[in-house]
Amino acid sequence: MELGEEELKATLKEFITETDFQEVDFQKFEEIICPIPIKNKQWAGDAILDTLFDTAEVQMKDDGDKKVLKKLKKIVCEGVKFTQDKSYGNIANDPCTLVQDSLFFPSQENVKTLCRHIESAKRNLKICVFTITDANICNSIINRHEEGIKVQVITDEECSQNEGSVIGKLAAKGIDVRTDNSIRNHMHNKFCIIDNSILCTGSFNWTVQAGKRNQENILITDYSFFVHEYLEEFERLWAQFADNIFEFKEFKKRGRKRSRRKKS
Question: Second label for 133, Cα 20 to 30 Å away, from 25, 67, 70, 123?
Answer without folding.
Answer: 123
